[in-house]
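This section describes the prediction task in plain terms. A model, or a person checking by hand, is given the sequence of a single protein chain and must write out its three-dimensional structure as a string of tokens. No templates, partner chains or ligands are provided. The sample shown here is typical of the held-out split.
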Amino acid sequence: MRARRTDANQNDVVKALRRVGASVRDTSRLGEGFPDLVVGYRADNFLLEVKDGTKPPSARKLTQPEEEFINNWRGTVYVVKSVGEALQAIGAIR
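The expected answer:
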């Protein structure tokens, strides 16, 4: 089993989500392609996969397990590359 690394911007994303009142669970260690964060905001739940938007596209590509999870999940998984994208995904900003 490989050690799971989080993207460099994940802590900033989590802090920003919590600042707007969201509850956040870091699920990055679950593996098997499960998204990095489960977020609760205004009575809705969100699954967020965090990628570092400062890296080149090849370095922020979804892994095969992440792609499979997203393709097979019967709900929405948001892939976010910044704090702004995370806040937009949950509807905290437009």
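For orientation: The first strand starts at residue 23 and ends at 26.
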